[in-house]
Specification:
Translation Initiation Factor IF3; 4-stranded antiparallel β-sheet; 5 helices; 39% helix; elongated
Length: 249
Amino acid sequence: MESKNKSWINTLIIGLCVIISCIAIAFGFYHFKSDSNQHITATGSASVDFEADTVIWRGCFSQSAYTPQEAYNKIKEDSSRVKAYLTDNGIKKDEIVFNSVDISRTYTEQYNEEGDYVGSVADGYELRQEFEVSSKDIDNIEKVSREISSLLDDGVELESYSPEYYYSKLDELKLDLIDKASKNAKERIDIIAKNSGAKIGKLKNSNLGVFQITAQNSGTSDYSYDGAFDTHSRNKTASITVHLEYGIK
């Protein structure tokens, strides 16, 4: 009888110990979770307007003939005309790059008397060459890219693409914006803490938002979740956001 009583008491003690342990763990976890959630977050932003300092203009021209040698001679003459046009209009030789010539066969489709397609027959070769101009003289490149009628009058089958505008000091600009956006986020956190009577602790987390480059005065229509990078506009706006999270003492 006495051993049964001891066994019952031991079981009761063990049970109480388990319950007390669970309560202690739960209490500690609650306070840890509560303390870890005490923080202030804010998102800062910064933007700047700037003008591109480099322009890239691309174009291409093509020639076709019955034999590849004949087509090559024609496109070689066109290449000389294009190069002369560019240099005569103030573009430096080291700013011009001519890519290799692409060659392809051309075909004529064949139809029978009923108008049904019956196949195609090779009738010659087409050669195509692209060129690229990279320059700091944006005003001149814009002018030259618009005034290509003389080449067309000479029989050069030229395609001119829209100039693309870039900025050579983009890394420096981005770092400056990150610094300003971070300061803006910290100022917001200080204001929130002051108005709520809290004391700021250590920085717990920081995230860099998307870096955007859009055309000036374009509004928000050009913004992208993955980041916009406008190359069509000479005058641009760069912007970035920084998200900061500070603990509370």
